[in-house]
Amino acid sequence: MSTTQITENQHSTYKRNLIAILISVMVVGITISMSLQLLSLIMDGRGYGTDIIGLHSAMTAVAILTIGPFVPKLMSRINSVILMYVGIALIALSLFSLAHSEDMLSWFLYRYFLGLGICLVWVISETCINALAESHNRGKIMGLYGCFFAVGFALGPIILTLVGSEGLLPFYIAIAIILVSAIPLFYLGNIDIDFNGHDNYGFWHIGRRSPLLYVIGFTAGFVEVSVYALLHIYGIHINLPVHDAMVMLSVFVIGSVVLQPVIGRCADRFNLRGVFLMVTFLCAAAAMLLPYTIHNPWLLWPMVFVWGGVAIGIYTAGIIGIGHRFNGDELAAANSGFIMMYAGGTLLGPSISGYAMKWSDPQGFVWVLALISILCFCFVWMAKGPKGRN
Predict the structure, then answer these.
(1) What's the count of helices (H) and strands (E) in the chain, helices before strands?
(2) Which residue ranges in the chain fall short of pLDDT 50?
(3) What dihedral do alpha carbons 218, 325, 254, 234 form, nearest 10°?
(4) Exposed/middle/buried for residue 164 (C-beta within 10 Å: 0-12, 13-18, 19+)
(5) 39: number of CA atoms within 13 Å, CB side?
(6) Fewer CB under 10 Å: which end of the chain, C or N?
């Protein structure tokens, strides 16, 4: 076989691996957003209070926080494709069990196992794509990764709107989606990544090496899920029509999808620390400007569009930073730790933001999001952060 043929075969394999991973992370986004809304709607219809619904919704984050430290150990001992299939099976079986049970205590258990499956697919797919990316194109690749994750997160509620939340149909559709996503993973069987030794490093080791990336992961989860959960509620509380409040959230989601490749390109071309500073500064500015622009659509829609891009861009820039800062047998632990911190942010963000909105209705919501973004900006400014290409 000629050198040209070998190069073409390697390029073809690389593209197949990349597509398989992007599809898997998009399905993770669909599963998280669709299950979150579906189960909340069902519980609300059965008369459960918001406290129980919130506690139940937290089970995914709890699962990620508990299994996250052990994923690198599993990856060093078991083929990563097999582990992803195990994660997909856990997600499908958990959704099936939730569909056929009305016992709330059992639902907590099933939701926990759903989170375990999501964690396996999420951590492994992110580690693989960071290992596949190279320094010259990491921003481009991880920008696509962030875009596909955002698309999945946006598709979940859309699918639920189309099929409704009644009966078994939405559960079966979610199960079908997750099972179909297993097909492209067949191509990952040829992926040339050795995860031996990834169990030598843990959460605290990575935190000591680069605490800034953990701060960024926590901030990303805190801001992103708080906005998804409460932005439309904020709009309604500030006397925005319900339709306009939902459109505002939709514009945020569109920005989160469209701008991730742009942020990735910026990370390839410019200093990564500068990209961190840019996205956290714009995130804080957007939150602080929201009360003053919310009744002016010409200012509101562009601002919310950019807010969506930079809010999710915090996560995108973070995983690019992981690829620049860590490699070899530290990579799986770094990705796992980053996702754990993101999960911690998703666990605390909506609760703190919701309490702040109740304490200072409704502006407490935006001040909390502005504060957490400013704190992250200050950490990046003071810390010796990852510099990327330049």
Answers:
(1) 16, 0
(2) 1-6, 385, 388-390
(3) 20
(4) exposed
(5) 32
(6) N
List Cα–Cα distances, 379 to 56, 169, 220, 309, 323, in angstroms. 32, 46, 14, 21, 20
Rounded distance between C-alpha atoms, residue 174 and residue 196, angstroms: 34
The residue behind tokens 């939701």 is: 111
The residue whose two tokens read 């492994």 is 124
Read off the amino acid at residue 332.
Answer: A
Decide if 54 contacts 113 (C-beta within 8 A): no
pTM above 0.85, yes or no: no
| Contact criterion met (CB below 8 Å) for 83 and 118 | no
d(CA 316, CA 232): 24
Q: Is the dihedral of CA 29, 141, 275, 256 positive or negative?
A: negative
How far is 381 from 277, CA to CA, in rounded Å? 7
Q: What size, in residues, is the chain?
A: 390
- Rounded to whole angstroms, the Cα distance separating 213 from 205 reads 13
Q: What is the pLDDT of residue 222?
A: 93
